Amino acid sequence: MSERKLTGIDRLLLQADRALRTLSPGAPCHGRPSPARDERDAALDEAERRRAAGLMRVNHSGEVCAQALYQGQALTAKLPEVRGEMEQAADEEIDHLAWCEQRLDELHSHPSLLNPLWYGLSFGLGAAAGKVSDRVSLGFVAATEEQVCRHLESHLERLPERDRRSRAVVEQMLEDEEAHGHAALEAGGARFPAPLKGLMTLVSRAMTSASYRV
Questions:
Q1: Is the pLDDT confidence value at 2 over 60?
Q2: 181 contact partners, CB below 8 Å, separation of at least 6
Q3: Are 136 and 184 in contact (CB under 8 A)?
Q4: What are the backbone angles phi and psi of residue 25, rounded to the nearest 5°?
């Protein structure tokens, strides 16, 4: 039996389903166990707990953005193989989403209330990049992952040293994000110029600051 070809309406419905699962608490299902599973949950004082929760909230929001970005790009990708790569990357990022949400729950905190806004903005950016060309779309992924890696590296410096559970999650995320960025460039992604990356950094900082607090 031949595989049914998805129509535009089918793809929109799938995108809506993905958005609901991304933004609904407890909805993400992950294939890999959390990297924190073998780490002891150290007793953090209130200031350390709040700092760790804020940083993990930012990381969770980053993964919400990643889901939206990849889904937007998959919707408008020109080549089927590029669409497949975007959808596969989104599936891999679900692990990160689930790990961050789990750690937030352990820290008696919650995801950012601004996540629906971040999802909508990121989806629009991803769809726009895909409309321009697959090369630009892949380049946007590479540039975004570069920004994400910088954030994760800074978070490893700022997380409480004894919070090994959060640190284990961030370390694995950093490894995965670096691999996604390299894969996007190897697939033919455009290398974005420094001024454009600088603008992306400013936007990222604004989103990070808002998500840390709310």
A1: no
A2: 141, 142, 145, 146, 149
A3: no
A4: -55, 135
> 88 is written with which tokens?
């596969």
Single-letter amino acid, residue 165: R
CA angle (206, 97, 25) in 5-degree steps: 95
List of residues 6+ apart from 47 with CB closer than 8 A: none
pTM of the predicted model as reported, rounded to 2 decimal places: 0.84
190-214: buried (b, 16+ CB within 10 Å) or exposed (e) per residue?
bebeeeeeeebeeebeebbebbbee
User: What DSSP character marks residue 6?
Assistant: P
Half-sphere exposure at residue 71, Cβ-oriented, CA atoms within 13 angstroms: 27
End-to-end, the C-alpha distance of the chain in Å comes to 50
Assign 42 to helix, strand or coil. Answer: coil
Report the C-alpha gap between 134 and 194 in whole angstroms: 20
**Count of other CB atoms within 10 angstroms of residue 79:** 11
59 in Cβ contact with 161 (< 8 Å)? no
Instruction: Compare 201 and 19 and report the one with higher pLDDT.
Output: 201
Task: At 17, give phi and psi (nearest 5°).
Answer: -65, -45
For the CA atoms of 148, 76, 195, 122, the dihedral, rounded to the nearest 10 degrees, stands at: -50
What pLDDT is attached to residue 152?
Answer: 94
